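Quick check before the chapter quiz. The format below is the same one you will see on the exam, so make sure you can read both the input and the output lines.
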Amino acid sequence: MLNRRSILIASLVAGALTLSPALAETAPTFDAKAFADAQKAGKPILIAIHASWCPTCKAQAPILSELRADPKFKNLVYFVIDFDSQKDLVNRFGARMQSTLIAFKGEKEEGRSVGDTKRDSIFGLAAKSI
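Here is the expected output.
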């Protein structure tokens, strides 16, 4: 039989499981004007197609946080697109899955990966944009 205590514990656990580290770090959501401005300025850009329920996205989150903190990537413009609520942008960038990372150098796409959780290859992808 469920009591109030077990319901409260279950609710807390469920809430903790759905909180995504990538979104919890207040990563900037995609902004079309900021993206266009960064492209015109020739800046390095990394877009992460993310879903809060995705275990691969959760594994990528600490790597992406580390990457954003690295001085080598201080000029990197970073955006997050929500896989579930921003389908128009998911389609615009040709992403078929969450956990897709897309690197741009200005207006040119330099590379993309899907489902990658290896630090070295994610850093390598971002490095293509600088």
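If your answer matched, good. The longest helix spans residues 4-18.
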